[in-house]
# Entry
Amino acid sequence: MKDTVLSAFALITSIVVAALIVSLPILFLWNDLMPELFGFKEINFWQALEMGLLAGVLFKSSVDNKN
# Structure
């Protein structure tokens, strides 16, 4: 039981850390550059996370280049 709780905690922690790693650079870069350059509105954390996930889906290559 204790191992299951620790495993669940580790999984949740990993998901939160991955979300921060994906979204914070997008958030900071967008809010620093886009409003000044193009007049776009600033975005929040959840919008940055969604943009990171969308970019991963759109630009991720499914081709395996093992030679």
The chain has a mean pLDDT of 90.
